[in-house]
Design a protein that fits this description.
The chain is built from 12 helices and 26 strands. The chain is of the alpha/beta class. The radius of gyration is 22 Å and the shape is globular. It catalyses: [(1->4)-alpha-D-galacturonosyl methyl ester](n) + n H2O = [(1->4)-alpha-D-galacturonosyl](n) + n methanol + n H(+).
Length: about 525
């Protein structure tokens, strides 16, 4: 039963990617071998490709969902971990099924590549959550392993073929000329001038008093409104954990430090890292948070450093944008989980691995504030989680500023601060055109555990400035690169990593497309 459901998930992946040939070709031994020879695990690939798709049914997927729900009924930490796995399984199937059926628009190769990358991330997150909370799952892990191998095979054989389109650059902080007029006006609007579909206010002057209630109402109205749905959140401190699962939603606040959303979930407090976020922008309950925009809001987790992993924002929605927002926490502040994300003119505060995940994420013109950690801790700004060399993911810090927060500055000499460490084997992070203050350790980067990932990671530095940017004493790992060729650096820009010219202009957010 469980095996059949796993086959459904992965065969959906293959189908949506256009990887299956005509049935007669699939069963041709020579073609199957040639096709699977490019896969990391050719035996697994060959076995599953030769299986009849008629064996796969929606009923089998429902059986797997019921099995996961039975585990959730255990409650406590085990229930929390299984709940995450169920969400991640459903999220993967839903995302990839968007490319199926005659009524769907033609899906671009970049989209398919992104969704496959996210599918593999979801499987890993499920596994990591079970391990994090020591949930007995030995019977389930082989299924995850098989599924991961199949997605990895699909990734290896999926090549980006979309024709490059001539894109205009959003230069120097100006709004792109061909962006949505309505969205540009929303982003430029002064405090209190936002034309909103709903208003949230603590003092009773709005339509509703909580962000959660407003999002629930937006979900009910969404089918009756085209274009972006705007929720204006007035100044105030909103103590709530929020899930955003409405497409093309905008949350507009009164500015950093004025509109504040705060929570205190943490791993030490009984949550999984995945589910500890104060705000969670995601696929949820058969809807999607794709196309989300946040402007002028502080997202905060107050659990504190002693509670360890405690996320302020987790985002696994596609084409998400955060503009002039702040993310405040200590360990694991900003969880850019998966898919395509863009952060512009934001503040990020934290200590350990505080920008992490496996999205294709670009932070541009942002302030990165390193806080004071606990005694005997070291600060690590990034912990990128790429698990497969074919994933089109990575974290890029471009035209930003890395400095010590006020609580760290007086004791900066007691704590070392690093640009990042490799959370997963193919971790990929690039700092470019960024100011690094004197808090950055001369080595620049920190090992995760011994020699793990040092030859397979990709850590790049390009034209950074400031006393912490000197690369003469950096680590000598095979995977570390001091980039000097602009064409290499272009791969990690908004254009190269996000294909941003095809979707960012419509959001109205200012951005630099290239270097």
């Amino acid at each position: 039963m469980v095996k059949l459901s796993t086959e459904l998930l992965l065969l959906c992946l293959f189908t949506c990617c256009g990887l299956f040939l005509h049935p007669s070709a699939i069963h041709a031994e020579a073609k199957r071998r040639r096709w699977c020879s490019r896969a990391p695990d050719s035996d697994t690939c060959s076995h599953y490709v030769s299986q009849s798709m008629q064996k796969v049914s929606i009923h089998a997927a429902m059986e797997l969902a019921m099995l996961a729900r039975e585990q959730i009924l255990l409650g406590g930490l085990e229930g929390a971990a299984w709940s995450d796995c169920l969400d991640l399984h459903d999220f993967t199937v839903s995302q990839l099924n968007r490319s199926l059926g005659p009524s769907r628009r033609r899906v671009g190769d970049d989209d398919v590549w992104t969704w496959l990358s996210a599918a593999l991330t979801n499987l890993h997150t499920c596994r990591a959550g079970l391990a994090e909370l020591h949930v007995p799952s030995s019977w389930f892990l082989p299924l995850l392993t098989n599924a991961s191998e199949l997605v990895s095979n699909a990734l290896a054989m999926t090549e980006t073929r979309a024709e490059e389109e001539e894109e205009r650059k959003g230069g120097g902080g100006e709004f792109p000329e061909w962006s949505s007029v309505e969205d540009r006006e929303l982003l430029r609007a002064r405090r209190g001038d936002v034309v909103a579909d709903l208003v949230v206010a603590k003092d009773g002057t709005g339509d509703l008093g909580s962000i959660k209630d407003a999002i629930d109402e937006a979900s009910r109205r969404r089918g009756r409104k085209s274009g972006r749905f705007v929720i204006y959140v007035k100044e105030g401190v909103y103590v709530e954990n929020v899930q955003v699962g409405v497409r093309d939603l905008m949350l507009a606040g009164d500015g950093i430090g004025k509109t504040v959303v705060t929570g205190s979930r943490s791993v030490d407090g009984g949550s999984t890292t995945f589910n500890s976020a104060t705000i969670d922008v995601r696929w949820h309950a058969a809807v999607t948070g794709d196309g989300f925009i946040a402007r002028g809001i502080t997202f905060r987790n107050t659990a504190g450093p002693a509670k360890h992993q405690a996320v302020a924002l987790r985002c696994n929605a596609d084409l998400a944008v955060f503009y002039r927002c702040s993310f405040e926490g200590y360990q694991d502040t900003l969880y850019a989980h998966s898919l395509r994300q863009f952060y512009r003119e934001c503040d990020v505060h934290g200590t350990v691995d505080f920008i992490f995940g496996n999205a294709a994420a670009v932070l541009q013109d942002c302030n990165i504030y390193v806080r004071r950690p606990m005694s005997k801790q070291q600060n690590t700004i990034t912990a990128q989680g790429r698990t497969d060399p074919s994933q089109n993911t990575g974290t890029v810090i471009q035209q930003c500023r890395v400095t010590a927060a006020p609580d760290l500055r007086p004791v900066q000499g007691k704590f070392r601060t690093y640009l990042g460490r490799p959370w997963q084997a193919y971790s990929r992070t690039v700092f470019m055109d960024t100011y690094m203050d004197d808090l950055i350790a001369a080595a620049g980067w920190l090992e995760w555990s011994g020699g793990f990932a040092l030859n397979t990671l990709y850590y790049g530095e390009y034209k950074n400035t400031g006393p912490g940017s000197d690369t003469s004493r950096r680590v000598r790992w095979r995977g570390h690169h001091v980039i000097t060729d602009p064409s290499t650096a272009l791969r990690f820009t908004v254009r190269g990593l996000l294909s941003g010219g095809s979707w960012l202009p419509a959001t109205g957010v200012p951005f630099t497309d290239g270097l």
